[in-house]
Amino acid sequence: MKDKDKGSETGRQGTDTTPxxxxxxxxxxxxxxxxxxxxxxxxxxxxxxxxxxxxxxxLLAAGSCVLPVLERRAExxxxxxxxxxxxxxxERQLLALAHSLIRRGLLDEDELxxxxxxxxxRLNS
Length: 125
Known about the structure:
With 125 residues, this protein is mainly alpha-helical. 56% of the residues lie in helices and 3% in strands.
C-alpha cells in the first residue's frame, strides 16, 4: 500500500518497503552463502558473517532499543514477503536489517557501498 504523506510503500506494520537501490543490486547478483560454500568446498551451513548479524540484531535491541526485537522482526517479515521474497535465509535477514537501518537513517547507503567496495578490494588483492 502507498503512504501518501511520505510517498513510500508500507507494510502491515508501517514498514517502509520502498526499494533501496544498493540492496536491490545486491539481491539481484544471486551470490548466496550456499553457492559460495559449495564453490569453495566449505561444509559449514552458516556463513561466517551470521554470528555478527545475530549480535548486531541483539545489540540494536539492547539498552536504548534503537530497533526493538518485535519491531525488527515485523519489518523483516514485511520485507521478506515483498522486497526480498526470492532471497534465501540468512541473506534475506541481512538485507532486511540493512534496509530497515537505511530507511531509519541509521545506516548511510553510500557509506555502505564504499565499505563494500573496500572489503571487495581487500579480498581480491
